[in-house]
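Field log, afternoon session.

UNIT: design team B
ACTIVITY: writing a sequence onto a fixed backbone
BACKBONE:
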């Protein structure tokens, strides 16, 4: 399929710049790309066993004395848990890069950030390295308090190609509201992905530096892992930053909101024996804010969730998702690595009871496929928010929604929701 130059997801994604997942059966049509790209059926692709051994095909008849119960026990032992699969997938994350970043210099302003004069005095930390890469940096507004404070971590939008931690200042209300509420604030940057789908496919280093878009772009799963690392870094500093490690929120807009949801819905990524002390800590959060964003980064699930045709969505977005995943859509559905990457990225499927509460909101109109919505509308479509809310309720989770299609009638905005949950 010839590469097209559609509106760039890079630009349009910018706004303001556990337990093992249960598989939900679908009745979606066979997801075959009608151009050059053949994509296997949606149901087959979504099976949790796609990238794992099919235990149902193992011959257990050789031992006639083995009871069905014993066979079931053996199958359970042989099937990796969701957490084990994630830890295996990320086992080489930042491998060999050391911990020198922990001693890198950052600026400390004990009199606080002069841009934000609030009722609560705070210390402002600027350009703190939370990982070994250039863009693994954050700013922190830490409230002075006799007791450990909750903290809200902001993750910027930008389509995984632009934006940074300074995006939080685009809203003059965010930091003052949180500080006045007694909540410390963190804003992070993360590594950039490729923009060019051809360069992305040619890349052989998915966990690259991510400082220059089409020279050393980072695959999207490792960008998401960076966001989880930021949570782990905050826990690592919980004592000296006077943070309550059980009261951490993640929130953002567009791509940043997707990152926050991914961090909130996947299993804990802590590795207690890791040589990097940061990665020994839990990556779990207490609440998530998801604003004008996506329902999953597994594009193969989008026709089901947005109720739009496979042909329309894949023709519109295939190049952009190829740049993010460094895989073609065909590879994402038909190769073991692509299938497992699809599963890793699918925070919709990872959602389960016990995951943190979330608030999801989108004020855009509900534009159907027949009206030819543009790329910006599709990648921020409110139907994706409704799909997440529906899944949440089916999992007996705690969540609220505000869209034109559906509303839970929560009396407040996203920041008020985060504060309410953190201060409980």
């Amino acid at each position: 399929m010839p590469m097209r130059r559609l509106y760039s997801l890079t630009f349009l994604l910018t706004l303001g710049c556990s337990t093992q997942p249960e598989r939900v059966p679908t009745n979606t049509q066979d997801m075959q790309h009608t151009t050059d790209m053949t994509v296997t059926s949606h149901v087959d692709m979504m099976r949790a066993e796609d990238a794992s051994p099919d235990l149902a095909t193992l011959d257990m008849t050789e031992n006639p004395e083995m009871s069905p119960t014993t066979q079931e026990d053996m199958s359970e032992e042989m099937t990796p848990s969701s957490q084990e699969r994630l830890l295996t997938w990320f086992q080489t994350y930042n491998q060999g890069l050391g911990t020198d970043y922990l001693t890198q210099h950052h600026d400390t302003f004990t009199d606080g950030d002069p841009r934000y004069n609030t009722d609560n005095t705070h210390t402002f930390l600027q350009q703190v390295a939370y990982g070994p890469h250039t863009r693994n940096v954050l700013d922190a507004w830490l409230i002075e308090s006799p007791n450990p404070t909750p903290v809200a971590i902001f993750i910027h939008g930008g389509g995984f190609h632009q934006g940074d931690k300074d995006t939080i200042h685009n809203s003059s209300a965010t930091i003052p509201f949180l500080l006045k509420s007694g909540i410390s604030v963190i804003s992070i940057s993360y590594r950039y992905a490729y923009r060019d789908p051809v360069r992305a496919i040619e890349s052989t280093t998915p966990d690259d530096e991510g400082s220059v878009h089409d020279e050393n772009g980072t695959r999207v799963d490792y960008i998401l892992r960076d966001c989880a690392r930021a949570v782990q870094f905050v826990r690592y500093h919980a004592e000296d930053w006077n943070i309550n490690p059980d009261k951490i929120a993640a929130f953002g807009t567009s791509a940043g909101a997707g990152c926050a949801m991914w961090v909130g819905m996947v299993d804990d990524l802590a590795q207690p024996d890791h040589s990097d002390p940061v990665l020994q800590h839990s990556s779990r959060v207490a609440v998530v804010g998801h604003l004008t964003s996506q329902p999953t980064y597994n594009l193969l699930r989008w026709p089901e969730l947005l109720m739009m045709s496979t042909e329309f969505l894949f023709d519109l977005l295939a190049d952009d998702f190829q740049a993010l995943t460094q895989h073609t859509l065909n590879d994402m559905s038909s190769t073991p690595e692509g299938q497992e990457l699809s599963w890793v990225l699918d925070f919709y499927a990872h959602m389960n009871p016990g995951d943190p509460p979330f608030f999801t909101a989108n004020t855009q109109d509900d534009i159907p496929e027949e009206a030819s919505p543009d790329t910006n509308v599709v990648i921020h479509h409110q139907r994706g928010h409704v799909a997440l809310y529906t899944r949440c309720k089916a999992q007996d989770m705690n969540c609220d929604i505000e869209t034109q299609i559906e509303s839970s009638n929560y009396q407040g905005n996203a920041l008020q929701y985060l504060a309410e949950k953190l201060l409980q």
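LOG NOTE: Confidence is low (pLDDT under 50) at residues 1-64.
NEXT ACTIVITY: expression trials, pending approval
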